[in-house]
């Protein structure tokens, strides 16, 4: 009947609104937790993820490794080629990192030209092996500019593991970050484990 069709039409409209709202919520959530340049998680969400993963490691008596990454001499890319090229480089490096980590791992842009990886159920040796391949991947990556220039960067990596090196989030972050900075202050383009 006509009344039934009107009722079904109204129900369909409400369902369509509900689906649209769910999609919008999902998109807004994605915007809140991701870095819009790289597509990786942002620093704020990384902080939440690390809390969750440390709690999981405690609960299951497991380890996790934390990796800090800083691009070497990245300021020169911006100074010599402009911020648009620098942004492209950050986006491409972010995607390279994302392409090499497992689906259970987390990659985040920590700020500027720094990235961080959370590697659940991963020993320092496992993290070191991954980081060595990432180091080669970053080193061999070439960004082509519009004028045909080839730009390469290297990166400094620091690794620390929970609970072996640190038994809390603050010390774990500090230690991985310090390892990275020791590489930057000495050789650059290297890896240092706590």
What report would you give on this structure?
With 194 residues, this protein is of the alpha+beta class. The chain folds into two domains: 1-33; 35-193, Alpha-Beta Plaits (2-Layer Sandwich), CATH 3.30.70. Helix content is 56%, strand content 19%. The chain contains six helices and seven strands; from the N terminus they run H-H-E-H-H-E-E-H-E-E-E-H-E. Helix 3 crosses helix 4 (83-100) and helix 4 (83-100) packs across helix 5.
N-to-C span: 74 Å
- Class by SSE composition: alpha+beta
Helical content (DSSP H or I, runs of 4+): 55-70%
Strand proportion:
15-25%
| Count of DSSP strands | 7
- Order of helix and strand elements from N to C terminus: HHEHHEEHEEEHE
Oligomer: single chain
How many structural domains in the coordinates? 2
CATH architecture of the largest domain: 2-Layer Sandwich
The largest beta-sheet arranges its strands as 2-3-1-6-7
User: How many distinct helices?
Assistant: 6
Low-confidence region ranges: none
Nearest-integer average pLDDT = 92
Radius of gyration: 21 Å
Indicate the CATH class of the largest domain.
Alpha Beta
State the major sheet. Answer: 5 strands, mixed
Shape: flat
CATH superfamily of the largest domain: Reverse transcriptase/Diguanylate cyclase domain
Q: Would you tell me which CATH topology of the largest domain applies?
A: Alpha-Beta Plaits
């Amino acid at each position: 009947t006509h009344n039934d069709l009107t009722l079904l039409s109204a129900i369909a409209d409400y369902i369509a609104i509900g689906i649209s709202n769910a999609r919008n919520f999902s998109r807004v959530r994605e915007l809140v937790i991701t870095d819009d340049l790289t597509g990786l998680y942002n620093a704020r969400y990384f902080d939440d993820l690390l809390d969750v993963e440390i709690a999981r490691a405690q609960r299951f008596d497991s380890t996790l490794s934390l990796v800090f990454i800083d691009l070497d001499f990245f300021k020169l890319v911006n100074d010599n080629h402009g911020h648009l090229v620098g942004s492209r480089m950050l986006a491409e490096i972010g995607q390279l990192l994302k392409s090499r980590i497992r689906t259970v791992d987390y990659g985040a842009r920590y700020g500027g030209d720094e990235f961080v990886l959370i590697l659940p159920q991963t020993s320092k040796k496992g993290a070191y092996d991954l980081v060595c391949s990432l180091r080669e991947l970053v080193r061999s990556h070439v960004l082509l500019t519009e004028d045909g220039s080839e730009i390469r960067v290297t990166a400094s990596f620091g690794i620390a593991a929970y609970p072996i090196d640190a038994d809390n989030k603050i010390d774990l972050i500090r230690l991985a970050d310090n390892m990275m900075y020791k590489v930057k202050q000495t050789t650059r383009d290297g890896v240092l484990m706590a």
